[in-house]
Amino acid sequence: MVLPGGSDALPVPLAIAPDDLRQLAEHDAAHRDFPGGAGPLAALDTGGDAAGGTVLMVAGYTGSKEDFAPLLRPLAESGFRVVALDQRGQYESAGPDDPTQYTVEILAADVVAVARVLREESGDPLHLVGHSFGGLVTRAAVLAEPTLFTTFTLLGSGPSQLTGRRADLLDHLGPLLDAGGVALVHETLEQVSMTDPRAQSVPAPTREFYSRRFLRNSEAGLRGMAEAMLAEPDRVAELRATGVPVLVAHGEADDAWLPHVQADMAQRLGARHEVINNSIHSPAVENPPRTLEVLCDFWASSRVRP
């Protein structure tokens, strides 16, 4: 989930410089649409021969494919084809005007559809990465079609529904949407975020991108995804039973699903567990070098599993 605002966690120095453009990091990926259940899904696709495999990355609530931008070029240079996806109703992917069409299962079916295309185009292996709410969605995709995926990474995600401060924010979402739509939600979150020194340090072009992106969210998508995120059951045992190798990775001060919650999930999964220093809830933009190292090492280790 990518929501502006303060954190209950202790201040964490981020590894990136304050003038880093984060989601606007330079890359060579091309814009491309993939077929989804409600229409085209916008993506960034690095292409290439995928000598190291293909990586499918799925963004979280109010996020977008650009949340993986700092990883695209280095992963491509490492021999991976990378596809980063806007889910339906997010940024450049249109979505239906019905909140019931944004359940975890329906969103997961979109991910499965894209994964099948990638399998046809590039073959094996296919590594799946889900950030935050995108982790709940991609988990459902793995449960639905485990043989499609070589590995699965939960990045800043959790075992079940969101709780805590960020969940409290979502409880206020409906009344704000009723009163003023997406624009009022954006205005309110902007006011909250400007009380956080970290948000104030984000470069102006990136803040402008955040605003432009948020205002393109589907109102129905915001409602439906929020409801889904607040109602997701614990499916850890089901995921472990698939046998798909899993990595649980998160920032050292994650303020969505807290670090101890994710550590417990990893233990129950029998999964690899990595804490990414100098990062909070979005390691791919807060500490891209370490996130890249963690992912590549996990994928390499999966190739030598007995």
UniProtKB/TrEMBL annotation:
Identification of the protein by name: Alpha/beta hydrolase
Organism: Blastococcus saxobsidens
Transmembrane residue ranges: none
Domain AB hydrolase-1 positions: 54-288
Keywords, comma-separated and alphabetical: Hydrolase
Pfam family, one: Abhydrolase_1
Entry GO MF terms: triacylglycerol lipase activity
Top-level taxon in the UniProt lineage: Bacteria
